[in-house]
Records
---
Amino acid sequence: MEVLSDEASQLPLAKEKKGPFHVLFGEARHIFSMDELGREILQIAFPAALALTADPIASLVDTAFIGQIGPIELAAVGVSIAAFNQVSRIAIFPLVSVTTSFVAEEDARCQASTDELTDLKLEKGIRKGEETKELLSNVDFAQSYKSSCITSMDQKLVDGRRCYPSVSSALIIGGVLGILQAALLIIGAKPVLNFMGVHSESPMLPPALKYLTLRSLGAPAVLLSLASQGVFRGFKDTKTPLYATVVGDATNIILDPILMFIFKLGVTGAAIAHVTSQYLIVFILLWKLSTQVQLLPSSIKELRVDRFLKSGFLLLARVIAATFCVTLSASLAARQGSIPMAAFQICLQVWLATSLLADGLAVAGQAILAGAFAKEEHNKARATASRVLQLGFVLGLILSVVLGVGLQYASRLFTKDPNVIQLMHIGIPFVAVTQPINSIAFVFDGINFGASDFAYSAYSMVLVAVFSIFALLILSATHGFVGIWIGLTIYMTLRMFAGLWRIGTASGPWSFLRS
């Protein structure tokens, strides 16, 4: 049954049957319409984009401060951040993506059940004070969601908090993964850095080892905070994560110069500042979440760990493939020396920070689509996919122009070394030109996750990674620094086409586009 509000049902994409590719390019004149869908996307995407870019911006500030110490320290921290992100994303991305989809589905289904119960109440003339459980027992559709919906209603009567199994499952899994990640990186810091191209005789090893070991202490906070953000995204609340992230990253930026230069701790001070900010973020998020949701289940049986693991392992393969390409590129740059690595680190941080603006649209698309598919509102799913893709393309074009012009003048903010600056100016055109491609690729990720199309996301990314790894190895060997950026451009282009293929062929969950 497809149920849409009056305004949503009148969306241009929903009023007549169109071919699969119409969802990508049709009705582009409505791209900036502030209708119900447009407002919902904006309310979710804008705070999410700011929150997602806050951490890379804080990393850019770290990079700018560390760059004042010297190119060796800058390159060392760049390798350490790449290694930390590689291990972190293996756990973070599946956890956040699965949590957002599952919480959004649970919330949408419970809301649908509540709406039907309200209608049933009116039809049967049941008085307001009658027991909710007695009513629920007579409603067949509520039985499959008894553990979440009934418990949720009971809790609202007691303490005003919801009780969704996906929330508790995400937090417990996040905490365990965070502890395991910290132990792995602290014990294996040197082998990991060796794999990244920083060998025992390299001058980058001591600062890189020190930074990576200290930053690893913040891994539990990182995993828990990202799991919490996944819950808030599932509830379509991206303002709370933004508030927590801004407070934490502002603390990081304030502590950086104090610890690095006043207390003369160097890269150690940068690591301590970053870890402190992460624990502050997770404290704020868990405190806010505890006022809305029961954080821990009343019994182990309520957890849905098996569902998380099934979808999580699919996304785990996807994340390993995706992040390995970026990590390999950093490793290849490190093998060329400290100067190329320093230039690559700055360009890469800018590339990632600006591209993640599109992730705000991806988050909005995922949250809205998860609810639409849960309620079988295919018209709304079609309209949402079309709108976020078109907005992503426009955003990419804007970023391309801004970065192409701005970075030529802003390079000295990150380093004063003329050799590093010279290589940066070679990488800047790649950073700028790939922005539209990156934006569409990131938005497609959110669309696939919102449709719970985890299997296709995993298999297609593995295939993309295989081709991209070969391209990176060959091009870096033949064209050096430029070859690495050509390889990354190929990688993001293949990611974009993988998303286009799924919707363009109307396959998987998008088969309804054929009708």
Note: The CA atoms of residues 102 and 441 lie 22 Å apart.
---
Amino acid sequence: MEPLKHECGIALIRLLKPLEYYHQKYGTWMYALNKLYLMMEKEHNRGQEGAGIACVKLGAQPGNEYMFRERAEGKDAIQNIFSSVYSQYKDFSQERLNDIEYVKENLPFAGELYMGHLRYSTTGKKGIRFVHPFLRRNNWKAKNLCLCGNFNMTNIEEVFERLTRQGQFPRIYSDSYIMLELMGHRLDREVERNFVEAQERGLKDTEITHYIEDHVEMANVLKTSMENFDGGYVVCGLTGSGEMFSIRDPWAIRPAYYYRNDEIVVVASERPVLQTTFELECEDIQELRPGCALLVKRSGECEVKQILDQKGDSACSFERIYFSRGSDKDIYLERKKLGEQLTQLVLASVDNDTEHTVLSFVPNTAEVAFYGLLEGFRKFVHEKKIQAILDLGHTPTHEELDKILSLSVRSEKVAWKDIKLRTFITESKSRNDLASHVYDITYGSIEPYMDNLVIIDDSIVRGTTLKESIIRILDRLHPKKIVVVSSAPQIRYPDYYGIDMPRLEEFCAFRATMELLKERGLYQLIDDTYHNCQQELLKPKSEMRNCVRDVYRPFSIEDINKKIVEMLRPADVTTPIDLVFQSVEGLHKAIPEHKGDWYFTGKYPTPGGTKLCNQAFVNYMERVYQYEQKF
């Protein structure tokens, strides 16, 4: 119920034919530019803090610009960017705009390679200089590099140290800039390798330039750039000479999808984006495999190449539950399955009383899981009807059949998102009061004091909105019982691969567990975990274990659920409240191909994740728990 900032969105388009082709077939040379706009709008769910686009024009003559970039901040960044680009054409006559040779020579963003990016900050760093794409300039076209990505690296300090040891001097300490400098450095070396080869062949002047541009191997650049990064990523790039690439992390954490035919090569963070924008079938689109790169050469030749050996199979399950577009065929079915699998647990919570139970959902991202739960209830009621008829032991009368068949599952639209809390209100009491009114309810939707009210959410992370708004406002309907259902398991551990959940104390499940440890006098376990985390941090990353998992071992899921309810219940609410979470086993049953479950299990796919989780517990003890005062 609390919006999370998360991984970014990427979009790439490479035209494989001259601009004249698209102008004749589709009626405009802006075909790719228009498609890029659609792709980015379809990925708007992945970034609302900023956006940027870039374009490379092939065949430009010296003295003319051939790389273009436009960036903007804020939720309206996409519209602002494309308005700015299109406004640059308004002073040209229609005759000029239809003259493709003139367009190619004179108009900005009239090229063959396009890149788009939508940003959500996972580091808290603000400002236009942190908005992708990033651009590294050079007088040699082949050395110009434009970079964007959906990534978060866990070992940026190690890579930074490596760069500075080589004598480089990165201007900004961030994974994006450091990656740009590292990859740019390796691109320089690749260009110089070809320069030497060209000289050895007896080539001179512009002959050398053409040789370099025709023989740059981005696979070499990526192998030497990405081999030491630890994290989840999809990194995309364009070079000034016309190379395009997209590489996925070897643990398969972050997703990328691509499509190619004889006209285009396109890449996006989500499959439905490509389906809708280019009118494709699901089967037309390929997923970029772990450690692989999609490489499109200046000539238009395209290949998928294994750059890094696959190191894991940890595609992010939380992305499927919450972040990705639910219009994807597989994701839709997975979310329905997540909801349906909770049927028995919810039925147990309401004592199988389907006649006096109303099902609903909040927020809208939980709607598909709600349909699954609804389907599960319908199956239960259907079997209940059959058994009731069989139990009669005789041919039923019309009245008996009518009574039995009238049994149904009740569902209502109970909660509505009503307002957005404005950031200019900073005084805490005012903010809390307004937060309690973010949602509104449908009055009269349940029978007061008679009906159980079941509300399903896709996940429960911090619990803040539950406490400050949802529970209190649902209580106004006077239900017999409130059952809050999460289609995801308890979120217990931070994420370090691109989702804004880096601190343990943010999670209501962790806070509840720490309270239980104190209540039961298990201070020694807290003490041991703190010191064990410190000891692990002294080891090489590859040998570390996640000691934070130890704090959960004394308690069942039900123990933690009860404590969460106790902590989140508003003081003036007396209605019985129950929490129902998906199990980890249920998660994998519903989403078998996405095994990345570190949010729920603490089993991080990379050594860097384990290290940062141990560090997070040390930080928590010393900052929030005030370890020095307790022991």
Note: The mean pLDDT is 91.
